Amino acid sequence: MLNLIRSRLFVGLLVLILSTFPTSRIVGGDQLSASFVSDAHRASREAIRTLECRVEFNVKLTPKAAKHSTQSSSGRYWYSVDTLRAKIVEENEELDFLWKNGIRQALFTRINSGKREVAASRGAFSDRHIHRSDAFSRALLVLNIPASTRHVPFEELIRIASKKGKPKKMSIGGRELLMMELSFNADAERREPWIVQVYFDPSVNYLVRKTVHSVSTSSGSLRREEIVDEFNESAPGVYFPVHISGVTEIDGTSWSTQTTQLLDLKVNRPLPAGILDFRFPEGVHLSDGVQGVTYRVDAQGNRISDATPLTRLAPPPPKSISESIPGVETQDEPTSVTQWILPISLGILLLGVLGTFARRRSQQTHKQ
Questions:
Q1: Angle, to 10 degrees, between the axis of helix 34-46 and the axis of helix 2-19?
Q2: What dihedral angle (degrees, nearest 10) is formed by the CA atoms of 286, 137, 82, 329?
């Protein structure tokens, strides 16, 4: 009941925001301010107080792009305003984690030569949306910072942009959308300047319908497009994307395509009892990146053995599918601690694309 009341309050807030602007400004599009679009989008996103769903994410790569032509990830996802729980499966590896108040507890499991191996971790992460099967990043409710693996709300993305354009009315596929273009200058993270175009759909209360990330130089170009094909109205005035597709191109040639389905969607309903209670296998070794030590824990995560500095007991890395995710750890957690626990992420694919793009540019430069 409380979630329903909160949902109605946010929808009411969105209606209030819209009602403060003349109809001609809302329809015309060109006269809308960036702050109006950002506020309307934020109110619509924040109307989602709880979420439960299943995420099916698939990527198809060109034969030369990677060793394996297809990649897939499947998981269950539970979200509340201050907490996130996810259980994700990729090939013979599983990740189960709980993020709350900037701390992530995680269990990483894999089958190796018929044996079940488990690793546990606790670490400080400023971002909760750190896996490629994350429902919010897949649904474009949080957006990718160019040339990084981080995903942030639009109001944060527009804040860090070097330059932002005014909203423009665009007609795409029979839909009237509002497009905002953001520029990101080259810096320590980005070797080249990027352009990000974000398309908002007024028919679904200004949620993002489409994004385009692009970088172009005299040596080549890269373009990544993602679009929401279908929304679900989970409650009156509360929408959520359920099918998303995307394509990445290098020099105009497709490098990869991707599809996401969000199934069994439950928005603003009570989460299953106990789903936000994280439990460890009794006696498992836990790598505590916050304190920089490792020790055994009981089912509740309480220490039951002496602590050993992580630098002295670094476990061997599993196979290559287990990678660190650059750019998401806070300074409180050494990256060397978490490298062997974090599974493959969207960032790995993104870095692969950027690497291919960089190699092509280098080859063309040498030819010149």
A1: 160
A2: 40
**Residue matched to tokens 């009981």:** 298
Segment 2-24, tens digit of pLDDT: 444 444 444 444 444 443 333 33
Distance CA 242, CA 336 (A): 36
Residue 10 · residue 43 · CB < 8 Å: yes
Cα–Cα distance between 259 and 224 in angstroms, integer? 13
Question: What is the residue extent of each domain of the chain?
Answer: 2-273+343-367
CATH class of 2-273+343-367: mainly beta
CA 177, CA 78: separation in Å to the nearest integer? 30
pLDDT tens digits, 220-257: 899 999 999 999 998 888 999 999 999 999 999 999 99
Q: Would you call 351 helix, strand, or coil by DSSP?
A: helix
Cα separation, 309 vs 288, in Å, equals 9
- DSSP strand E in the chain: where? 50-61, 70-80, 83-90, 93-100, 103-112, 115-124, 143-144, 151-152, 163-164, 168-172, 175-184, 194-201, 207-217, 220-235, 238-250, 253-267, 285-288, 293-296, 308-309
Instruction: Report the phi/psi class of residue 186: left, alpha or beta, with left for phi > 0 and alpha for psi in -120 to 50.
Output: beta
In this predicted model, what pLDDT tens digit does every residue of 296-355 receive, in sequence order? Answer: 999 999 999 999 998 644 444 333 222 322 222 232 333 322 333 333 333 434 444 455
pLDDT (tens digit per residue) in 166-202: 999 999 888 999 999 999 999 887 889 999 999 999 9
Please, are residues 199 and 178 in contact by the beta-carbon 8 Å criterion?
A: yes
What gap in Å lies between CA 259 and CA 4, rounded to an integer? 31
